[in-house]
Amino acid sequence: MSMAILDNVIYRPILAALVGALVLWLGVWWYQQLGSDTTAPALVMTDEQLKLVAGEGGKMEDGILIRRRPPGKPAMVMAATLPFEAGQFARFSWDIRGLEPQQNLALIWVTNTDPNKPRTRKITPEERAVGFLQLEDDPTWRGQILKFGLLVTGNLPEPVLVKGLTLEGEPPTPLTALRSLAGDWTHQEPWTGRSINFHVGAATKDRLLTPVLLVGLWVGLGSLLLVFFDRLSSSRHLLGGLALLFLGGWLLLDLRWQWLLATRLEETYERYGHLTPDQRPSARPDAHVVTALDQLRKALPEEPSRIFLLSKNPSDYLTLRVRYHLLPLRVFASDHLPNPEQIQAGDHFLVLANPEVVRFDGTHKRLVDGEASLPVEPLSKVQGFGGLYRIPGGG
């Protein structure tokens, strides 16, 4: 293959790809500048938005006073705020009076990806000296932040006054734009209840561009540049260069997908690999559902006629998981009682613990749904999960 053909088929697509990536980077920076002013956004939480949730003390006129920690645990001050995207803020600072060197601070937060697992970040002496904590490089400061606050550990010979907590963003720069693109590309989607091949197809609030859209824009810009180069030199190898760009983008997406599957496999092994088959069900995200159903199942006959599953939303995650774990039994989900002509003696009702759903009238032993009601026998109940009932007259 001659050097001229190499230039047309290989070198020019590479040049177009590099220039396209540069244009995309600068375009994202320009877009970020349009959506913000010259100052960084800030979320300032003062005494009105702060609450002492662990420890002795209370609200003062100018802040939250911490007198004592819980025995063996840190004192905790939480901020009352609406959920926000972690990417909006990159710096955490605090205004605390009476803090001694032997006392330690840590930021604590909860994300929507794992609301049952609080994240913490210890504040080092160097960070205390400068008065702020940088968050943009923390891999766990991602997604939607549901709650955040401050932990105070160490002996408290004198009370500590928390006057305020502040989260600050960064004004858009070429570097922050590059971080946004890198964050979009390296964002890891955990296992979900969807298909193994499912991935998010649209950008969320904390992600500017999904990988597919990012690669699509990059290939599109590279193709336009390649067409421009081709017009300048009257090359006859335009289709080959376009094919290389398209295949390059496809390969990048496939490599990322394989990396994502590898991280999911590692996550699964860390969670279940060291457990025996009997222990693994208790480590699953829906372990509480399995435990509750195991207890309720003891009150069921070997082959119950039917089970009516009553919940606030028959299509929500909990209801679907309950139906799955009750297989191969016949389960019908609904948000209201069936008509009397639709039931028969021996039918069972599993009422999930939702206040808006059917309630049990223990005095008259009936399930009540507004003006409708059915006579039932209570069989079993799991606090916080639900109760099992049976229509009298069946086995």
Keywords, separated by commas or semicolons:
395 residues, six-stranded antiparallel beta sheet, flat
Can you walk me through this structure?
There is one protein chain. The chain is an alpha+beta fold and 395 residues long. Helix content is 34%, strand content 26%. It has 8 helices and 20 strands. The strands form 4 sheets. Strands 1, 3, 4, 7, 10 and 12 form a 6-stranded antiparallel beta sheet that branches. A hairpin with a 2-residue loop joins strand 3 and strand 4. Helix 1 (3-34) crosses helix 4, helix 1 crosses helix 5 and helix 4 (211-233) packs antiparallel against helix 5 (238-272). The radius of gyration is 29 Å and the shape is flat. Mean pLDDT is 78; it is low at 202-206.
Indicate the topology.
Layout: H1 3-34, E1 42-45, E2 50-54, E3 56-60, E4 63-68, E5 75-79, E6 84-85, E7 91-97, E8 104-111, E9 119-123, H2 125-130, E10 132-134, E11 144-153, E12 160-168, H3 174-186, H4 211-233, H5 238-272, H6 280-283, H7 287-297, E13 307-310, H8 317-325, E14 331-334, E15 348-352, E16 359-361, E17 366-369, E18 372-375, E19 377-382, E20 386-390
Parallel strand pairs: 13-14, 13-15
Antiparallel strand pairs: 1-12, 2-5, 3-4, 4-12, 5-11, 6-11, 7-10, 7-12, 8-9, 8-11, 15-20, 16-17, 17-18, 19-20
Helix pairs in contact: 1-3, 1-4, 1-5, 4-5
